[in-house]
Amino acid sequence: MAPAVSLAAARSLSAVVLSSSSSSSSTARSSSDKSTSLRSVRAISGRTSGFAPQLVSQSKGSLTRVRCEATVAEKEAPVEKYEYQAEVSRLLDLIVHSLYSHKEVFLRELISNASDALDKLRFLSVTDPSLMDVNPNLDIRIKTDSDAGTVTITDTGIGMTREELVESLGTIAQSGTAKFMKALKESKENNAADNNLIGQFGVGFYSAFLVAEKVTVSTKSAKSDKQYVWEGEADTSVYSIREETDLDKLLPRGTVITLHLKADDKFEYADAVRIQNLVKNYSQFISFPIYTWQEKSQTKEVDDDGEEVKEEEVKEGADEEKKEYKKKKSITEKYWDWELANDTKPIWMRSPKEVSKEEYNTFCKSTFKEFIDPQAYTHFTTEGEIEFRSLLFIPGMAPFNTDEMLGAKTKNIRLYVKRVFISDEFDGELFPRYLGFIKGVVDSNDLPLNVSREILQESRIVRIMKRRLVRKTFDMIDEIANRENKEDYKTFWTSFGKNLKLGCIEDSGNHKRLGPLLRFHSNKHEEDLISLDQYVEGMKPDQKAIYYLAADTIKSAKSAPFLEELVKRDLEVLFLVEPVDEVALTNLKEHKEKKFVDISREDLELGGAEDEEKEKEVEKEYKELCDWMKRNLGDKVAKVQISKRISSSPCVLVSGKFGWSANMERIMKAQTLGDTSQMDFMRGQRILEINPNHPIVQDLKHTSKSNPQSAQSKQMLDLLYETALLSSGYTPESPAEFGAKVYEMMSLALAGKSESAIEEPSTGDAEVIEASEVITENDPWKS
Question: Which CDD domains does this chain map to (predicted)?
Answer without folding.
Answer: HATPase_Hsp90-like (cd16927)
